[in-house]
Amino acid sequence: MRCYDDVTELDFALADLPTLPPFDAAWMADPRDFTVEYAINPHMRAAGGELNEVDRAAARAEWAALREAFERLGVAVDVLPPLDGHPDLVFCANPGLPVPREVTGGVDEWVPSRMASAQRAGEVAHLAAFAEARGWRVAPLTGAAARFEGTGDGLWHPRRRLLWGGVGPRTEASAWEELAARYALPVVRLRLADPDFYHLDTCLALVAKDACLWYPPAFDAAGRALVERLVPRAIAVDEEAARRGFACNAWSPDGRRVVLQRGAEEVVRALRAADLEPVEVETSEFRKSGGSVFCMKLALPQRG
Ligand code: ARG
Questions:
Q1: Which domain holds residue 194?
Q2: Ligand 1 atom 7 nearest Cα
Protein backbone atom coordinates (compact mmCIF):
# COMPACT_ATOMS: atom_id res chain seq x y z
CA MET A 1 0.00 0.00 0.00
CA ARG A 2 0.95 3.58 -0.15
CA CYS A 3 0.78 7.07 1.15
CA TYR A 4 -1.77 9.50 -0.23
CA ASP A 5 -0.84 13.19 -0.39
CA ASP A 6 -3.51 14.46 -2.75
CA VAL A 7 -7.14 13.68 -3.55
CA THR A 8 -6.22 12.87 -7.15
CA GLU A 9 -4.28 9.86 -5.85
CA LEU A 10 -7.17 8.30 -3.93
CA ASP A 11 -8.02 4.86 -5.29
CA PHE A 12 -10.24 3.56 -2.48
CA ALA A 13 -13.52 4.41 -0.84
CA LEU A 14 -13.73 4.39 2.95
CA ALA A 15 -16.65 1.98 2.83
CA ASP A 16 -14.53 -0.58 0.97
CA LEU A 17 -11.71 -0.69 3.53
CA PRO A 18 -11.54 -3.60 5.99
CA THR A 19 -13.06 -2.81 9.37
CA LEU A 20 -11.24 -2.52 12.70
CA PRO A 21 -12.60 -3.06 16.21
CA PRO A 22 -13.29 0.01 18.34
CA PHE A 23 -10.29 1.46 20.16
CA ASP A 24 -12.07 1.49 23.49
CA ALA A 25 -9.22 0.81 25.91
CA ALA A 26 -6.70 3.41 27.02
CA TRP A 27 -3.33 3.66 28.65
CA MET A 28 -2.76 6.77 30.73
CA ALA A 29 0.52 7.78 32.39
CA ASP A 30 0.77 8.60 36.07
CA PRO A 31 0.90 12.43 36.25
CA ARG A 32 3.22 12.46 39.30
CA ASP A 33 6.04 14.32 37.56
CA PHE A 34 3.99 16.47 35.19
CA THR A 35 5.13 20.09 35.01
CA VAL A 36 6.57 22.52 32.44
CA GLU A 37 10.38 22.45 32.67
CA TYR A 38 11.35 23.25 29.08
CA ALA A 39 9.62 24.55 25.96
CA ILE A 40 9.44 22.31 22.90
CA ASN A 41 6.21 23.76 21.47
CA PRO A 42 4.81 27.31 21.39
CA HIS A 43 2.16 26.62 24.04
CA MET A 44 4.65 26.00 26.84
CA ARG A 45 5.62 29.66 27.28
CA ALA A 46 3.51 32.53 28.61
CA ALA A 47 3.07 35.77 26.65
CA GLY A 48 6.19 37.24 28.29
CA GLY A 49 8.34 34.32 27.12
CA GLU A 50 8.74 32.64 30.51
CA LEU A 51 7.81 28.97 30.99
CA ASN A 52 4.22 28.37 32.04
CA GLU A 53 3.72 27.67 35.70
CA VAL A 54 1.78 24.49 36.45
CA ASP A 55 -0.38 24.03 39.54
CA ARG A 56 0.63 20.44 40.19
CA ALA A 57 -2.20 19.63 42.59
CA ALA A 58 -4.74 20.99 40.11
CA ALA A 59 -3.08 18.96 37.35
CA ARG A 60 -3.40 15.75 39.33
CA ALA A 61 -7.08 16.47 40.02
CA GLU A 62 -7.76 17.15 36.32
CA TRP A 63 -5.98 13.92 35.35
CA ALA A 64 -8.03 11.89 37.85
CA ALA A 65 -11.27 13.46 36.60
CA LEU A 66 -10.30 12.68 33.00
CA ARG A 67 -9.65 9.08 33.92
CA GLU A 68 -13.05 8.90 35.60
CA ALA A 69 -14.73 10.43 32.57
CA PHE A 70 -13.14 7.77 30.36
CA GLU A 71 -14.16 4.99 32.75
CA ARG A 72 -17.73 6.25 32.90
CA LEU A 73 -17.82 5.78 29.12
CA GLY A 74 -16.80 2.15 29.57
CA VAL A 75 -13.13 2.63 28.66
CA ALA A 76 -10.74 0.21 30.38
CA VAL A 77 -7.87 2.37 31.66
CA ASP A 78 -4.43 0.89 32.39
CA VAL A 79 -1.92 3.19 34.11
CA LEU A 80 1.74 3.51 33.11
CA PRO A 81 4.07 4.15 36.07
CA PRO A 82 5.91 7.50 36.22
CA LEU A 83 9.51 7.87 35.04
CA ASP A 84 11.89 10.16 36.92
CA GLY A 85 12.88 13.26 35.00
CA HIS A 86 10.13 12.94 32.36
CA PRO A 87 7.49 15.63 32.94
CA ASP A 88 5.84 15.03 29.53
CA LEU A 89 5.30 11.28 29.98
CA VAL A 90 1.68 12.07 30.82
CA PHE A 91 1.20 12.65 27.05
CA CYS A 92 1.59 8.94 26.47
CA ALA A 93 0.02 9.05 23.00
CA ASN A 94 3.33 10.27 21.65
CA PRO A 95 6.09 7.68 22.38
CA GLY A 96 4.71 4.96 20.11
CA LEU A 97 2.09 3.71 17.69
CA PRO A 98 0.02 0.58 18.38
CA VAL A 99 -0.59 -1.48 15.24
CA PRO A 100 -3.22 -4.00 16.31
CA ARG A 101 -3.33 -7.57 15.04
CA GLU A 102 -6.35 -6.72 12.89
CA VAL A 103 -4.00 -4.43 10.96
CA THR A 104 -0.85 -6.57 10.95
CA GLY A 105 -2.69 -9.77 10.08
CA GLY A 106 -0.56 -11.43 12.74
CA VAL A 107 0.23 -10.22 16.23
CA ASP A 108 -0.24 -6.87 17.98
CA GLU A 109 2.78 -4.70 17.19
CA TRP A 110 4.17 -1.65 18.94
CA VAL A 111 6.19 0.84 16.89
CA PRO A 112 8.37 2.95 19.20
CA SER A 113 8.67 6.64 18.38
CA ARG A 114 11.77 8.61 17.47
CA MET A 115 11.08 11.70 19.55
CA ALA A 116 11.94 15.04 17.98
CA SER A 117 13.28 16.39 21.29
CA ALA A 118 16.04 14.99 23.49
CA GLN A 119 13.96 15.84 26.57
CA ARG A 120 11.34 13.23 25.68
CA ALA A 121 13.58 10.52 24.21
CA GLY A 122 13.68 8.51 27.44
CA GLU A 123 9.91 7.95 27.39
CA VAL A 124 10.14 5.65 24.38
CA ALA A 125 11.75 2.61 26.02
CA HIS A 126 9.53 3.02 29.09
CA LEU A 127 6.39 2.80 27.01
CA ALA A 128 7.76 0.02 24.79
CA ALA A 129 8.48 -2.10 27.88
CA PHE A 130 4.93 -1.45 29.15
CA ALA A 131 3.53 -2.49 25.76
CA GLU A 132 5.72 -5.59 25.60
CA ALA A 133 4.58 -6.67 29.06
CA ARG A 134 1.03 -6.53 27.72
CA GLY A 135 1.75 -8.77 24.75
CA TRP A 136 2.65 -6.23 22.09
CA ARG A 137 5.63 -7.17 19.95
CA VAL A 138 8.02 -4.24 19.74
CA ALA A 139 8.69 -3.50 16.05
CA PRO A 140 10.96 -0.44 15.62
CA LEU A 141 11.27 1.60 12.45
CA THR A 142 14.33 0.60 10.43
CA GLY A 143 14.36 3.43 7.88
CA ALA A 144 16.04 6.81 7.95
CA ALA A 145 13.23 8.91 9.45
CA ALA A 146 14.76 10.88 12.31
CA ARG A 147 11.40 12.01 13.69
CA PHE A 148 8.25 9.98 14.39
CA GLU A 149 5.91 10.71 17.30
CA GLY A 150 3.46 7.83 17.42
CA THR A 151 -0.19 8.72 17.89
CA GLY A 152 0.66 12.40 18.20
CA ASP A 153 0.81 12.38 14.40
CA GLY A 154 -0.63 8.95 13.58
CA LEU A 155 -4.41 8.76 13.92
CA TRP A 156 -6.27 5.52 13.27
CA HIS A 157 -9.47 6.08 11.34
CA PRO A 158 -12.36 4.86 13.54
CA ARG A 159 -13.41 1.32 12.57
CA ARG A 160 -11.52 1.37 9.24
CA ARG A 161 -8.12 -0.01 8.30
CA LEU A 162 -6.70 3.40 7.49
CA LEU A 163 -4.11 5.60 9.15
CA TRP A 164 -3.86 9.41 8.96
CA GLY A 165 -0.28 10.64 9.23
CA GLY A 166 0.75 14.18 10.13
CA VAL A 167 3.94 15.52 8.57
CA GLY A 168 5.53 18.41 10.41
CA PRO A 169 7.92 19.31 13.21
CA ARG A 170 7.49 15.97 15.00
CA THR A 171 7.15 13.38 12.21
CA GLU A 172 8.85 13.05 8.84
CA ALA A 173 7.04 11.95 5.70
CA SER A 174 9.33 8.93 5.26
CA ALA A 175 8.16 7.36 8.54
CA TRP A 176 4.68 6.97 7.02
CA GLU A 177 6.23 5.54 3.83
CA GLU A 178 7.91 2.80 5.87
CA LEU A 179 4.77 1.92 7.84
CA ALA A 180 2.55 1.93 4.74
CA ALA A 181 4.93 -0.53 3.06
CA ARG A 182 5.51 -2.71 6.12
CA TYR A 183 1.83 -3.23 6.89
CA ALA A 184 0.40 -2.82 3.37
CA LEU A 185 -1.61 -0.04 4.92
CA PRO A 186 -3.08 3.07 3.30
CA VAL A 187 -1.77 6.22 5.01
CA VAL A 188 -3.31 9.62 4.26
CA ARG A 189 -0.54 12.15 4.83
CA LEU A 190 -1.40 15.68 5.93
CA ARG A 191 1.15 18.48 6.09
CA LEU A 192 0.96 20.71 9.14
CA ALA A 193 1.26 24.39 8.28
CA ASP A 194 1.13 26.34 11.56
CA PRO A 195 3.57 26.00 14.52
CA ASP A 196 0.77 26.07 17.12
CA PHE A 197 -0.57 22.85 15.55
CA TYR A 198 2.61 20.84 15.83
CA HIS A 199 1.01 17.38 16.06
CA LEU A 200 -1.85 16.15 13.87
CA ASP A 201 -3.91 15.50 17.00
CA THR A 202 -3.93 19.23 17.78
CA CYS A 203 -5.96 20.04 14.65
CA LEU A 204 -7.84 16.85 13.70
CA ALA A 205 -9.94 14.46 15.76
CA LEU A 206 -11.61 11.59 13.90
CA VAL A 207 -14.53 11.14 16.28
CA ALA A 208 -16.59 8.66 14.23
CA LYS A 209 -16.10 6.77 11.00
CA ASP A 210 -17.75 9.61 9.11
CA ALA A 211 -17.11 12.61 11.38
CA CYS A 212 -14.24 14.75 12.60
CA LEU A 213 -13.42 17.96 14.40
CA TRP A 214 -10.73 19.95 12.62
CA TYR A 215 -9.13 23.34 12.18
CA PRO A 216 -8.77 23.80 8.40
CA PRO A 217 -6.13 26.62 8.45
CA ALA A 218 -3.68 24.26 10.16
CA PHE A 219 -3.36 22.33 6.86
CA ASP A 220 -2.22 23.09 3.34
CA ALA A 221 -4.69 23.02 0.44
CA ALA A 222 -3.96 19.38 -0.40
CA GLY A 223 -4.59 18.33 3.19
CA ARG A 224 -7.83 20.27 3.44
CA ALA A 225 -9.08 18.64 0.27
CA LEU A 226 -8.25 15.16 1.60
CA VAL A 227 -10.19 15.72 4.82
CA GLU A 228 -13.14 17.18 2.93
CA ARG A 229 -13.20 14.24 0.53
CA LEU A 230 -12.82 11.44 3.06
CA VAL A 231 -14.84 12.73 6.04
CA PRO A 232 -18.46 13.59 5.18
CA ARG A 233 -19.21 15.28 8.50
CA ALA A 234 -16.13 17.47 9.00
CA ILE A 235 -16.88 20.01 11.73
CA ALA A 236 -14.65 23.08 11.46
CA VAL A 237 -13.60 24.46 14.84
CA ASP A 238 -13.22 28.22 15.36
CA GLU A 239 -9.75 29.65 15.88
CA GLU A 240 -9.97 30.42 19.60
CA ALA A 241 -11.34 26.97 20.48
CA ALA A 242 -8.72 25.27 18.32
CA ARG A 243 -5.62 27.34 19.06
CA ARG A 244 -6.11 28.08 22.76
CA GLY A 245 -8.84 25.64 23.76
CA PHE A 246 -7.42 22.48 22.14
CA ALA A 247 -10.96 21.50 21.12
CA CYS A 248 -9.55 19.38 18.27
CA ASN A 249 -7.49 17.34 20.74
CA ALA A 250 -10.65 15.36 21.46
CA TRP A 251 -11.38 11.65 21.63
CA SER A 252 -14.38 9.41 21.14
CA PRO A 253 -14.06 5.80 22.32
CA ASP A 254 -17.33 4.77 20.65
CA GLY A 255 -18.05 7.04 17.69
CA ARG A 256 -20.84 8.79 19.56
CA ARG A 257 -19.64 10.41 22.78
CA VAL A 258 -16.84 12.93 22.34
CA VAL A 259 -14.57 13.89 25.23
CA LEU A 260 -13.16 17.40 24.80
CA GLN A 261 -11.87 20.41 26.67
CA ARG A 262 -14.69 22.39 28.29
CA GLY A 263 -15.89 25.74 26.96
CA ALA A 264 -15.92 25.43 23.17
CA GLU A 265 -19.55 26.49 22.87
CA GLU A 266 -19.85 26.46 19.09
CA VAL A 267 -18.16 23.09 18.90
CA VAL A 268 -20.50 21.65 21.52
CA ARG A 269 -23.49 22.92 19.55
CA ALA A 270 -22.10 21.53 16.29
CA LEU A 271 -21.47 18.12 17.86
CA ARG A 272 -25.04 17.96 19.16
CA ALA A 273 -26.40 19.01 15.77
CA ALA A 274 -24.42 16.10 14.27
CA ASP A 275 -26.00 13.66 16.76
CA LEU A 276 -22.79 13.36 18.73
CA GLU A 277 -22.69 13.75 22.48
CA PRO A 278 -20.08 16.14 23.93
CA VAL A 279 -18.49 15.19 27.25
CA GLU A 280 -16.70 18.28 28.54
CA VAL A 281 -13.67 18.00 30.80
CA GLU A 282 -11.07 20.42 32.17
CA THR A 283 -7.45 20.04 31.06
CA SER A 284 -6.19 23.61 31.56
CA GLU A 285 -3.01 22.60 33.41
CA PHE A 286 -2.04 20.24 30.59
CA ARG A 287 -2.81 22.80 27.90
CA LYS A 288 0.02 24.82 29.48
CA SER A 289 2.28 22.10 28.07
CA GLY A 290 0.53 21.92 24.69
CA GLY A 291 -1.71 18.92 25.24
CA SER A 292 -5.25 17.92 26.19
CA VAL A 293 -7.65 14.97 26.10
CA PHE A 294 -6.43 13.04 23.07
CA CYS A 295 -2.72 12.94 23.86
CA MET A 296 -3.24 12.24 27.57
CA LYS A 297 -4.10 8.67 26.65
CA LEU A 298 -3.03 6.02 24.20
CA ALA A 299 -6.07 4.33 22.66
CA LEU A 300 -6.13 0.71 21.59
CA PRO A 301 -8.62 -2.11 21.14
CA GLN A 302 -9.67 -3.85 24.33
CA ARG A 303 -8.01 -7.26 24.70
CA GLY A 304 -9.80 -9.91 26.76
N1 ARG B 1 4.84 19.16 25.98
C2 ARG B 1 4.51 18.06 25.13
C3 ARG B 1 5.32 18.11 23.85
O4 ARG B 1 5.55 19.17 23.34
C5 ARG B 1 3.05 18.05 24.84
C6 ARG B 1 2.62 16.93 23.96
C7 ARG B 1 1.15 16.93 23.70
N8 ARG B 1 0.83 15.95 22.76
C9 ARG B 1 0.08 16.11 21.68
N10 ARG B 1 -0.06 15.10 20.92
N11 ARG B 1 -0.46 17.23 21.34
O12 ARG B 1 5.74 17.13 23.32
A1: 3-300
A2: 291
